Amino acid sequence: MAKLKLTYFDFDGGRGEPARLALHLGGIPFEDQRIAGKDWPAFRDQTPFLAMPTLEVDGRVVSQSNSINRYVGKLTGLYPKDDFQALLCDEVMDAAEDIGTRIAHTIDLADDAKKKAREELAAGRITRYLEQFQAKLKAAGGEYFADGRLTVADLKIFMWIRWLRSGALDHIPKDLVDRVAPSLVKHFERVASHPMVAEYYKRRKAA
Ligand SMILES: N[C@@H](CCC(=O)N[C@@H](CS)C(=O)NCC(=O)O)C(=O)O
Question: Ligand 1 mean position to 161 CA, how many Å?
Fold first, then answer.
């Protein structure tokens, strides 16, 4: 088994968390390196593309969250073996990455510009993505996004929906998901109540 070190910011969400969670679910040992925000400027230059997450595999550092998700998904059995199911899994992860990136680009905007950008996103692309994810979930059988079982695509969407519903994003109504895509709320609850996911976050909360 390769020696793994996953490096990401020190919070339970974002681009690094699906891989962290997948490794826990799969029982794969890894070093969980968490970088505090204050240490990021000094650490940035050590990453290949000036961003995290990164995964070190036997001393070689690789980047890109969805590439890491796929690799970790293969190690943990949380990535489909069937090529078409893998395509469905990838589509969802890449679309989640696209919309997540658009939202992330609003974080450093000044207040007025942020309000305008986020209101436009909420009414426009976020709504569209929610509708499409809901349609894709239904087409895949209604419970999981690919392979009729939990995969890394479910973990990626779980993180995004949790972020949207958290209220942490000013000007994006926290009930938007519930109003637009109730099936994604059910999906969120399905993943959250997976015994190992629930146990992991219970442990994280207590730590
Ligand atoms: N395409 C990359 C994007 C990585 C990325 O932008 N990561 C953010 C954190 S979620 C980051 O490192 N931001 C700090 C910075 O840009 O200074 C991926 O999917 O991993």
Answer: 19
